[in-house]
């Protein structure tokens, strides 16, 4: 044992007690939060039960003034470009709690208390920091029980994962800096300060892992070189964890909950992505557009899908050894559409006619995917008389914008040979914490390819409202979309048309208003958007968020409005701030991995 671990298990020391006392306190806080959220979900259930029984329910009122202030988003230079006042308060409170446990835990009621000396407080920093790492582990676990109990999606928890990690790294930095300074004073040179004995060597290894995690987590690397970020992150976690356990194997008592849940999540995701087969149905990449559209079939996807969710996709587009490597690269993409079939009694498919129908009909033979031109984009054409027993076919589509190296290469490959593209799908993920169906007015405002979550929410509300679901309160939907070129809209127009047609014959009254802004096109869109008729307002200018939201606010001055937004950071921040100022509920979707 002495050869494997540098120090014995010191559970009775003050610095270890400070660590697990902080851990128990934080888990208690989150348990209370989850209980409160479950009570809220119970109230939502009772509210919908009243609607099902034919009783009237008052519309949700706008948020009070104090809540509006806390929901405002601000920019912190060099740190983040979008954070709410509430999140800042959370972080400040978290820092205060960390300092209290570092300097005062374990708490006693007898005798005078003296602040711990540096030789003790730096180790307290290390153990409290490990607890923050454990919480960060659980925050980033995609199938986390905390995510389900708190009703927060994976992408909503990722910012907290980053903050807990940063605080933990800062605390580990205090411990590391003090120990290096102490060793240098003792040995007089840098080499011995870092590698004198096994305890110092393992600490240096863990430090190297922390440095890798920090450097490779910057936004530029995450967004442009996601594969490098992902693998360096995994390597950094393994290196720092192994080094920390060898340095002090008692650390496992603190790291165990996070590591266990992460490993369980990895096993579940491996089964979901490798043993629940995914079939690539069609691949579309039009040179006029900047994104690739992939239609795929995954059995069981529709059973757990919630509008606005996304999947992690491994895209194999090469040959040979590199193709095997691509199977390990997972990238997040929002599902833009789930396609459904009508009930077996009707025996009628609801996919529009086009080349994809031929592929769908031949799926039993497991044929290879087909390239599809943009003029044959398939979508759901729902019928207002669909039976409630309708079963989903498991077809879904994603739209991938060419930003980084992988997505640009995918676009080129899809143009040349779409049959070469194959998918593995893991998910869906993201439990939407905003229940859009409980609001009489819904605003879906997005920019560019950020329209994909809005599309699924739009289609879900229209389908349920058209079937007469009493629990869906939505009466008005404002669909606002800002794009540069009119060609970017071609692949989505058929979805918008299907929703408009379904809303026109809806059992429950539903008004869907489309507003599309073309910032770099002078085309009036008469051909592409002609099927949307009077429900569309087309603008040949850039969308000014303040004007758009103010106009909508003038139409809805009493009830609370639900807002979904996705797009550039500045765009979303402005939407969120205006929505919060009006006392509305807002959800922004962005991948900050």
List the helices and strands and how they pair.
Layout: H1 14-52, H2 65-71, E1 73-76, E2 80-84, H3 85-104, H4 118-139, H5 145-150, H6 154-187, H7 190-195, H8 198-215, H9 219-224, H10 226-247, H11 252-274, E3 278-284, E4 291-298, H12 301-304, E5 310-316, H13 321-326, E6 331-340, H14 355-361, E7 370-371, E8 392-401, H15 405-416, E9 422-429, E10 441-447, H16 452-466, E11 476-483, H17 490-504, E12 511-518, E13 536-539, H18 545-555, E14 562-566, H19 569-581, E15 585-588
Parallel strand pairs: 3-7, 10-11, 10-14, 11-12, 12-13, 14-15
Antiparallel strand pairs: 1-2, 3-4, 4-8, 5-6, 5-9, 6-8
Give a brief rundown of this model:
Keywords: Electron transport, Ion transport, Membrane, Oxidoreductase, Transmembrane, Transmembrane helix, Transport. It comes from Umbelopsis vinacea. With 593 residues, the chain is α/β, with parallel strands linked by helices.
């Amino acid at each position: 044992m002495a050869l494997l671990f540098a120090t014995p298990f010191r559970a009775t020391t003050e610095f270890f007690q400070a660590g697990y006392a902080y851990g128990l306190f934080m888990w208690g806080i989150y348990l209370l939060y989850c209980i409160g959220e479950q009570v809220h979900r119970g109230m939502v259930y009772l509210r919908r039960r009243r609607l099902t029984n034919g009783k009237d329910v008052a519309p949700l009122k706008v948020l009070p003034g104090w809540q509006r202030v806390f929901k405002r988003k601000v920019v912190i230079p060099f740190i983040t470009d979008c954070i709410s006042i509430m999140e800042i308060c959370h972080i400040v409170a978290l820092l205060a709690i960390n300092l209290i446990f570092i300097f005062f835990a374990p708490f006693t009621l007898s005798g005078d208390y003296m602040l711990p000396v540096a030789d003790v407080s730096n180790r307290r920093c290390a153990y409290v920091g490990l607890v923050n790492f454990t919480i960060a582990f659980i925050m980033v676990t995609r199938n986390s029980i905390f995510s389900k109990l708190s009703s927060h999606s994976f992408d909503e928890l990722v910012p907290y994962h980053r903050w807990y990690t940063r605080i933990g790294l800062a605390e580990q930095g205090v411990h590391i800096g003090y120990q290096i300074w102490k060793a240098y004073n003792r040995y007089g040179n840098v080499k011995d300060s870092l590698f004198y004995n096994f305890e110092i060597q393992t600490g240096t290894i863990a430090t190297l892992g922390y440095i890798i995690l920090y450097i490779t987590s910057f936004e530029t690397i995450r967004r442009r070189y996601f594969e490098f970020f992902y693998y360096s992150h995994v390597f950094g976690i393994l290196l720092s964890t192994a080094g920390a356990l060898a340095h002090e194997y008692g650390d496992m008592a603190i790291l165990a909950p996070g590591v266990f849940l992460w490993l369980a999540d990895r096993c579940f995701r491996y089964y979901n992505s490798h043993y629940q087969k995914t079939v690539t149905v069609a691949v579309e990449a039009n040179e006029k557009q900047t994104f690739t559209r992939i239609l795929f079939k995954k059995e069981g996807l529709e059973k757990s899908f919630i509008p606005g969710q996304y999947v992690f996709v491994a895209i194999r587009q090469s040959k040979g050894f590199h193709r095997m490597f691509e199977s390990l690269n997972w990238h997040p993409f929002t599902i833009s559409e789930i396609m459904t079939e009508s009930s077996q009694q009707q025996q009628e498919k609801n996919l529009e006619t086009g080349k994809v129908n031929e592929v769908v009909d031949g799926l039993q033979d497991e044929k290879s995917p087909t390239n599809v031109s943009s003029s044959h984009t398939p979508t759901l054409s729902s019928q207002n008389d669909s039976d409630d027993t309708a079963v989903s076919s498991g077809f879904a589509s994603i739209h991938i914008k060419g930003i980084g190296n992988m997505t640009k290469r995918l676009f080129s490959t899809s143009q040349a040979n779409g049959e070469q593209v194959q998918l593995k799908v893991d998910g869906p993920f993201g439990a939407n914490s905003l229940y859009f169906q409980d609001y009489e007015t819904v605003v879906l405002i997005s920019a560019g390819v950020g329209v994909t979550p809005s599309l699924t929410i739009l289609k879900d509300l229209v389908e349920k409202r058209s079937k007469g679901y009493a629990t869906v309160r939505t009466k008005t939907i404002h669909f606002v979309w800002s794009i540069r070129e009119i060609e970017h809209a071609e692949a989505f127009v058929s979805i918008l048309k299907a929703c408009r047609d379904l809303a026109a014959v809806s059992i429950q009254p539903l008004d869907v208003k489309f507003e599309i802004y073309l910032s770099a096109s002078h085309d009036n869109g008469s051909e592409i958007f002609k099927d949307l008729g009077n429900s569309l307002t087309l603008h040949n200018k850039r969308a000014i968020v303040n004007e758009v939201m103010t106009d909508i606010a003038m139409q809805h001055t009493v009830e609370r409005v639900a807002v979904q937004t996705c797009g550039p950071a500045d765009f979303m921040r402005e939407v969120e701030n205006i929505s919060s100022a009006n006392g509305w509920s807002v959800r922004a979707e962005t991948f900050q991995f």
